[in-house]
Design brief:
Number of strands of chain A: 15
Strand order of the largest sheet of chain A: 12-11-10-13-14-15
Keywords (chains A, B): Oxidoreductase
InterPro entries (chains A, B): ADH-like_C, ADH_N_2, GroES-like_sf, MDR_fam, NAD(P)-bd_dom_sf
Strand content of chain A: 25-35%
Distance between the termini of chain A: 43 Å
Oligomer: homodimer
Largest sheet of chain A: 6 strands, parallel
GO molecular function, one term (chains A, B): oxidoreductase activity, acting on the CH-CH group of donors, NAD or NADP as acceptor
Order of helices and strands of chain A: EEEEEEEEEHEHEHEHEHEHEH
Shape of chain A: globular
CATH architecture of the largest domain in chain A: 3-Layer(aba) Sandwich
Pfam families (chains A, B): ADH_N_2 (PF16884), ADH_zinc_N (PF00107)
CATH class of the largest domain in chain A: Alpha Beta
Chain lengths: 303, 303
């Protein structure tokens, strides 16, 4: 068989503000690969099935001299993130052709991996869509699963506020908070997303582009748990409307990834209201919860 | 004996910005008391010996409609805070004349207390100055003692940064951090205070009015523990210069008590650096630690 195109998404320029496909990243088709004769040398060849685009990738596009919480992408190399791939050929005893793998992989149609390292073989006996394994059954689901258990200290009858509630992290937070008997206030960025979050039985759902977060929280709060994915205005509004001893789970700060974000004006209430604010990366919890997560979540998604 | 003057400090006006003695508070001598014939009705008469002035009293002067973390003072009534008084006469079986009491008392030369409630009888077998019981052996000392144990997670070789390091809270933090084997960076607001903090063996001491906190931390950090008494510029500088998984102990936010304080620009690093930020009031820990605190600290102060 003749070699085939091997398309890749390359990191091409450091963005200021939002990243721009075609400029800060480019699609490159200059390479080819001979699928049947690529030299494996005891490794294996993977075909990419699913790529995950997460907000935190923006952080990896920072200038190397600037602070970033994740390792920066290398210029002119493929960007990379959590993905699902299928083995095409294997000379590695750990995997065989047609096995599916989940790990951080390059944004590239085909690639050769020297070994399994941290990759997970997905058995998928539940028959989920493969895309679920980069969403609720992957890193975003693990993010919610682990940090909710570590930090939320959910109590029946208390109130939670969740931003970006239609996303893979936020939507699972909504469901956990409801399961724990909390009143759940949520924000999302479109009417379609609002409808989806309503279907998850959130008590209060609003489109933050049409309704001011501060007004909703003043009426529906005070809040005991704030699950923060976005920062800035939502963070300010949440701080002002917390109950005493609230827990603020800092899962992301999306509004700050493309610039400085809105300054926080009322930090003094962290002290005044005896608030605890937990910043975390899911990677710090993976070992602790990985096995029980894969045992529990994919099975629950099928129900 | 004829009645004597009974001077009081009354709350007279809600301050905007700094409070002003003579305006927001006034000294009033209009009342008198007959020390030998005041009707006690099974209670006791106290003479005030020591009054404590703490930054948080500013919060108690807020407009009742505004947020405050402590109960507001009543207009035209004496302000109140932690104090030491001595019993003049007692008809209460729990105390006798010449016993010394510590509690929140009105700023008033003489007053009658109906019962002991939360007041502590100070035996002072260590022979400390009575003023120590509103400082290192009182609420400020308890603040450091309890929250350092709850939150600092001090590790030998790590670095701590302490603001207001010459005060009764900060100076004890410096000593605890040094005892725990940490490198200790400190700020204070005058050369005299700097000299005092140096005498406590802090590793780095600077006058924040002459040297920029951000510059010192960039050179001497990153910091693993930030003991924050002041907020604003120090808070911003600390956030920028924390190590991964730093602990930020929010003990006070003095720069925010007289107004809004400097906005915080870089809150995104709380998430990025997996920081935990603990806001607390000492009152929430008193029951848990009170006995061991009084067992340990006054004795150590005498050494």
């Amino acid at each position: 068989m003749a070699p085939v195109k091997n398309g890749r998404i390359l990191f091409n320029d450091i963005p200021s503000g939002y990243s721009e496909p075609g400029k800060t990243t480019i699609y490159d088709e200059s390479e080819t690969i001979d699928l049947n004769n690529a030299p494996l040398n005891s490794s294996f060849l993977i075909k990419t099935l699913i790529l995950s685009i997460n907000p935190y990738l923006r952080d990896k596009m920072q200038d190397p001299k600037d602070y970033g919480f994740a390792p920066h992408f290398d210029m002119n190399q493929p960007i990379a993130n959590f993905s699902v791939g299928v083995i095409v050929h294997s000379e590695n005893k750990g995997v065989k052709a047609r096995d599916h793998l989940y790990d951080t992989f390059p944004f590239q149609e085909y690639f050769i991996l020297p070994g399994l390292e941290d990759s997970r073989i997905l058995k998928n006996k539940e028959g989920l869509l493969w895309s679920a394994y980069v969403g609720i059954a992957g890193m975003p689901g693990q993010t919610t699963y682990t940090a909710w258990r570590e930090y939320a200290q959910a109590k029946k009858g208390e109130t939670a506020f969740v931003t970006a509630a239609s996303g893979p992290v936020g939507s699972l937070v909504v469901q956990f908070a409801k399961t724990n008997g909390m009143k759940v206030i949520t924000s999302a960025g479109s009417d379609e997303k609002v409808a989806f979050v309503k279907s998850l039985r959130a008590d209060v759902v609003f489109n933050y582009k049409k309704t001011k977060t501060a007004d909703v929280l003043a009426k529906e709060g005070p809040i005991n748990v704030y699950w923060d994915n976005v920062g800035s205005e939502s963070f300010n509004a949440a701080l002002t409307n917390t109950a005493q001893r609230a827990r603020l789970v800092e899962c992301g700060y999306i509004t700050g990834y493309n610039g400085e974000g809105t300054p926080v004006k009322n930090m003094a209430v962290v002290f005044g209201k005896e608030i605890t604010l937990y910043g975390f990366h899911v990677s710090s919890f993976l070992l602790k919860y990985k096995d029980e997560f894969y045992c529990e979540i994919p099975a629950r998604v099928t129900k």
